[in-house]
């Protein structure tokens, strides 16, 4: 839902920065790798210690590399299957680190097994939501569905809640409740999105199979 509009906006904003990196001789793949490394470091260094504000600041600085690398590739005229594969693969790594860091916090200093389980569910469901679309497309289906909570929504909801929850350490009272609420929203939304995609793939697969049978039967009657 956010992907269409957010990507268009930030692509325009980040185009000058992407052009600067190109002039400096930086490759799109290097930006992809550096961005993922920054997100993973921010999530796994700060979040397990409960440093949600500073962890979110670090992650946010690097998470936009997902838009910068593609922008650079388009400006260079070098968009490739390899670049798309690398970008998608490392997106999964970054997402896993964010929710993994939150799970480590709740398993340790946060001392809340229920929220640890919710964070792990967010991690797993996010990966499966992405897999259902990739797998459906790999067998020739369009998977035409806009899920309730896709990657952009998961990141925005989680990072905004983490950042604001981190203000608790600066003396803002009761604001830490935002993070558990956000995790539950992401968990439920991801489950709904997964169901939406599975139902869509099932319908599209049935339509494709019916079309194939009609072609075969039509050929036999000639």
TrEMBL record:
Catalytic residues as annotated in Swiss-Prot or TrEMBL: 91 (proton acceptor)
Localization annotation: Cell membrane
Membrane topology: Multi-pass membrane protein
Gene3D superfamilies, A to Z: 1.20.120.1760
Record-annotated membrane-spanning stretches: 52-68, 177-195
Residue numbers binding Mg(2+) 2: 66, 87, 91
GO molecular function: transferase activity
InterPro entries: CDP-OH_P_trans, CDP-OH_PTrfase_TM_dom, CDP_ALCOHOL_P_TRANSF_CS, PIP_synthase_PgsA1
Recorded superkingdom: Bacteria
Reactions listed under catalytic activity: a CDP-1,2-diacyl-sn-glycerol + 1D-myo-inositol 3-phosphate = a 1,2-diacyl-sn-glycero-3-phospho-(1D-myo-inositol-3-phosphate) + CMP + H(+); 1,2-di-(9Z-octadecenoyl)-sn-glycero-3-cytidine-5'-diphosphate + 1D-myo-inositol 3-phosphate = 1,2-di-(9Z-octadecenoyl)-sn-glycero-3-phospho-(1D-myo-inositol-3-phosphate) + CMP + H(+)
Function: Catalyzes the conjugation of the 1'-hydroxyl group of D-myo-inositol-3-phosphate (also named L-myo-inositol-1-phosphate) with a lipid tail of cytidine diphosphate diacylglycerol (CDP-DAG), forming phosphatidylinositol phosphate (PIP) and CMP. PIP is a precursor of phosphatidylinositol (PI) which is an essential lipid required for cell wall formation.
Quaternary context: Homodimer.
Name of the protein this chain belongs to: Phosphatidylinositol phosphate synthase
Organism whose genome encodes this protein: Streptomyces lonegramiae
């Amino acid at each position: 839902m956010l992907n269409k509009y957010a990507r268009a906006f930030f692509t325009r904003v980040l185009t000058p920065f992407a052009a600067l990196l190109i002039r400096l001789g930086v490759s799109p793949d290097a930006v992809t790798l550096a961005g993922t490394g920054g997100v993973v470091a921010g999530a796994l260094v700060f979040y397990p210690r409960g440093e949600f504000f500073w962890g979110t600041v670090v992650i946010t600085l690097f998470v936009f590399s997902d838009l910068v690398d593609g922008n650079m590739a388009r400006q260079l005229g070098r968009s490739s299957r390899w670049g798309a594969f690398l970008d998608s693969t490392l997106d999964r790594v970054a997402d896993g680190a964010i929710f993994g860091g939150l799970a480590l916090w709740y398993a340790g200093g946060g001392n809340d097994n229920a929220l640890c389980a919710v964070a792990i569910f967010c991690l797993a469901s996010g990966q499966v939501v992405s897999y259902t679309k990739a797998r459906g497309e790999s067998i020739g289906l369009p998977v035409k569905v806009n899920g309730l909570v896709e990657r952009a929504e998961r990141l925005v909801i989680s990072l905004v809640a983490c950042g604001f929850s981190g203000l608790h350490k600066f003396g803002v009272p009761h604001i830490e409740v935002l993070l558990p609420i956000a995790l539950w929203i992401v968990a439920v939304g991801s489950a709904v999105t997964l169901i939406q995609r599975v139902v869509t793939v099932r319908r599209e697969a049935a339509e494709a199979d019916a079309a194939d049978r009609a072609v075969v039967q039509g050929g036999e009657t000639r």
